[in-house]
UniProtKB/TrEMBL annotation:
PANTHER family to which the protein is assigned, alphabetical: ALPHA-L-ARABINOFURANOSIDASE 1, SECRETED ARABINOSIDASE
Gene3D superfamilies linked to this entry: Exo-inulinase, domain 1 (2.60.120.560), Galactose-binding domain-like (2.60.120.260), Glycosidases (3.20.20.80)
UniProt organism field: Glycomyces tritici
UniProt-listed Pfam families: Alpha-L-AF_C, ASD1_dom
Assigned protein family: Belongs to the glycosyl hydrolase 51 family.
Protein's name in the database: non-reducing end alpha-L-arabinofuranosidase
Keyword line: Hydrolase, Signal
The Alpha-L-arabinofuranosidase C-terminal domain, residue ranges: 420-743
Catalytic activity: Hydrolysis of terminal non-reducing alpha-L-arabinofuranoside residues in alpha-L-arabinosides
SMART domains reported for this sequence: Alpha-L-AF_C
EC number per UniProt: 3.2.1.55
Source taxonomy: Bacteria, Bacillati, Actinomycetota, Actinomycetes, Glycomycetales
Length: 753
């Protein structure tokens, strides 16, 4: 039997944020090459490098037979310095990303650059022999050659390029792309593009994320190096540990915005590289800053300038005479607010606002919705009067349910918020519904929250550096997550005004500390010896934890009243150790990380329902040194957590015990007397929502409901365990809607008559 509650839609309030729901695309998880990029050939330029990843080399992705070598003399272009030299009989084969695939009757366009001393031909086979042809090569220097192939069968295999005995041919910039309905090769993989279009995004943020400011100054993303002919673009190491061809560069980014109807939100580095770079966040040298600032201004001109401007003319030359319509520009990403950052950021922002007052500049705060970086970022934005600030929030589902009303506390007259990256830390239904509840809270506060985008967006199954992700895919299919369906339901139905909503009969879920648990030591990447161990006043034997071991159990505790002391010495390995306090998952417990994430920090993490994330920190730290003792003291006193490291109190905070809002509703209206009503039931109890509208009279509601799976179903690299279903209900002055356990519904209500 379901529990009944009332959703009372009140008066109209503020105008809805028109650009609220958008996308953030960063090249990680093979999101672009091997993903959204329709290119079927991997490393077609022979530019993979051992510095990018162990085992990479110029022929990564290729299999060579016969006389094949990589050369660098007289290259195709300085940015494309390697090429394959074939002395026949010889062949090279490329397997793409998990196979080069074709569909019977589908057409493919092969293009490459070649040069030969004498006329010859390259024999072509693609997709397991499903497409075959010959490519004539004239004598002379580098020439671009094309060949259209038609697949005679469904197939997946390799692209094979072979030269006959006696022939010598140089080959570079090999590309194989499906041909679209317009007769041109596709830029974007068609099924992934449709999946993005179905989200109906208002904006797209690009290129990062961490990718924008790079792993060191040499790795910073410079937009001018990503436009023009693809074989002339700068190819560099991806900050996520692989190669980026830049085939999806700034022109393609703007084209993606056109294809999805989204406004661009480009992100540029704030004059410093990523703080996680070796040696920290180095600033662009003073001698180069004027040129860098001009590059930023040129980006705006490239996007918006008339064809009578230098960079507007360049845009037209590249096939786009009409402006792209950039209205936002992000400066920086999760930066530490150092003196160098302040200096560089201020000069960039001042230049943009002086030259382009029509552009809304977006500043930056830290990687979390709390802590020193967050506080310093906001303080600096207020000091400067920056119009919008980029917040990030990767947290556990419980945090989202506790923070539905987070932005009610923000000053509506202050800087606006772009929630640039957020996710509830798993691909489960539980996480998707927590995000839906939080998104209703974002939608309620348009005076503050103007933009929001889930992250990361795309991930090739089996090729991830980060999970969870919104959309997984493999060579054959797209695998949307439960969170994808939530995002789609918000993007598809929007309103023009936000309405007050009262809930009657739906109580928050209380949160309390666990009553019992244990203490366990772990060291996943090191061997660590512990001595002087004292738990709640009792001396314990010395112990050792080893890499990838299960750890060592010290004993039982009351998680609300416990004290632990010890000295730890790393004997070998990397990183430090972890202290686990509390019961087993899925119950609530804490993890104190000392020397975590590249041995650069300390942090206290919390896990609920089997999903964990930092609760306090990470805070920068010197790291664990082999053979050097680390003295630890941890004290739990009710919700208060205190952690001393070598006598320094590094963490001192209270755990959030506010109740969770698991039943949440929001409403908007739009022209014609229509309402969009959203409801989340993130509980294990079926509920009947009695929706009461401010307007009397009969109405019909077109309902889209996401339900039918348990809260912990849903995994990375798999399709969602639930998909939305559509149906209608009718009523007079409102309607009743059955909400199954663990469900989310959007109802579009239209008056009858």
């Amino acid at each position: 039997m379901s529990e009944r509650f009332t959703v009372r839609v009140g008066a109209a309030g503020a105008a809805a944020a028109p650009d609220l729901w958008g996308l953030f695309i960063e090249d990680l998880n093979d999101a672009l090459d091997g993903g959204l990029n329709a290119e079927l050939v991997r490393n077609g330029d022979f530019e993979f490098d051992p510095a990018e990843r162990d085992g990479f080399h110029a022929l990564t992705g290729w299999t060579a037979t016969g006389g094949v070598e990589v050369r660098t003399e007289a290259p195709l272009h300085p940015n494309n310095g390697h090429y394959a030299h074939l002395t026949g009989p010889a062949a090279i084969e490329n397997g793409g990303w998990d196979g080069v695939r074709a569909v019977r009757g589908g057409r493919l366009r092969l293009s490459l650059f070649a040069r030969a001393d004498a006329p010859t031909a390259i024999a072509v086979q693609a997709c397991g022999g499903a497409a075959i042809g010959d490519l004539a090569v004239e004598a002379g220097g580098w020439r671009r050659l094309e060949l259209d192939l038609e697949a005679s069968a469904d197939g997946r295999g390799e692209l094979r390029l072979a030269v006959p005995a006696g022939a010598t041919v140089d080959i570079d910039a090999v590309s194989l792309r499906p041909i679209g309905a317009d007769g041109e090769p596709l830029t974007f993989r068609a099924d992934l593009l449709r999946t993005l279009q179905d989200l109906k995004p208002s904006f797209i943020r690009f290129p990062g994320g961490c990718l924008a400011h790079g792993y060191g100054l040499d790795n910073m993303y410079h937009w001018k190096r990503t436009i023009g002919p693809r074989h002339e673009r700068e190819q560099i190491r991806n900050v996520w540990g692989y190669h980026q061809s830049r085939q999806i560069g700034y022109v393609e980014y703007f084209e993606l915005c056109l294809a999805t109807g989204a406004t661009p939100v480009p992100i540029v580095a704030a004059g410093v590289c990523c703080q996680n770079s070796p040696g920290g966040p180095h600033p662009i040298p003073e001698s180069e800053m004027d040129a860098y600032i001009q590059d930023v201004l040129d980006l705006v001109e490239f996007a918006n300038g008339g064809t009578d401007t230098p960079w507007g003319a360049k845009r037209a030359e590249l096939g786009h005479p009409e402006p792209f319509g950039v209205r936002y520009l992000g400066i920086g990403n999760e930066d530490q607010i150092t003196d160098d950052f302040r200096d560089r950021y201020a000069r960039i922002e001042d230049a943009v606002q002086a030259a382009h007052p029509e552009i809304t500049v977006i500043g930056t705060s830290g990687p979390q919705p709390f802590g020193p970086d967050y506080e310093a970022g906001w303080a600096y934005a207020r000091e400067r009067g920056t119009p919008m600030v980029d917040e990030h929030g990767y947290q556990i589902p419980r945090w989202f349910h506790q923070n539905i009303d987070r932005y009610q506390a923000y000053d509506p007259d202050g800087a606006k918020v772009y929630l640039g990256e957020y996710a509830a830390r798993s691909n489960t239904v539980r996480s998707a519904l927590a995000e839906a509840a939080y998104m209703i809270g974002l939608e309620r506060r348009p005076e503050v929250v103007r933009l929001a985008s889930y992250a990361p967006l795309l991930a090739r199954a089996g090729h991830t550096q980060w999970t969870p992700d919104l959309i997984y895919f493999n060579a054959d299919e797209v695998l949307p997550s439960a969170s994808y369906h939530v995002q789609q339901m918000f993007g598809a139905e929007r309103g023009t005004r936000v309405h007050a909503v009262e809930l009657e009969g739906a109580q928050p879920v209380p949160v309390s500390l666990p009553r019992e648990g244990t203490v366990r030591l772990r060291s996943g990447r090191a061997t660590v010896a512990y001595s002087g161990v004292v738990l709640n006043g009792h001396r314990l034997p010395d112990v050792i934890t080893r890499a990838d071991g299960e750890g060592v159990l010290l004993g039982g505790i009351d998680p609300g009243a416990a004290e632990l002391e010890f000295e730890a010495v790393q004997q070998d390995g990397v990183e430090g150790f972890t202290v686990v306090l509390g019961p087993e998952a899925p119950q609530s417990f804490l993890e104190v990380h000392i020397g975590g994430w590249q041995n650069k920090s300390t942090a206290v993490a919390r896990s609920d329902d089997g999903i964990g994330e930092n609760d306090h920190g990470p805070l920068p730290w010197r790291g664990v040194t082999t053979g050097v003792p680390v003295r630890m003291r941890i004290r739990l006193d009710g919700p208060r957590v205190q952690v001393w490291v070598d006598g320094e109190l590094r963490h001192d905070y209270e755990q959030d015990l506010r109740p969770e809002q698991r039943v949440v509703a929001g409403a908007l209206s739009r022209d014609g007397g229509e309402y969009v009503v959203r409801m989340v039931n993130a509980t294990g109890t079926a509920r009947t929502a009695a929706v009461a509208l401010p307007d009397p009279g009969p109405a019909t509601a077109a309902v889209r409901l996401l339900a039918g799976a348990g809260p912990d179903e849903g995994r990375p690299h798999e399709a969602a365990p639930v998909t939305p279903v559509d149906f209608r209900v009718e009523g007079d002055g409102g309607f009743d809607l059955e909400l199954p356990p663990w469900s989310f519904a959007t109802a579009v209500v239209r008056p009858l008559g």
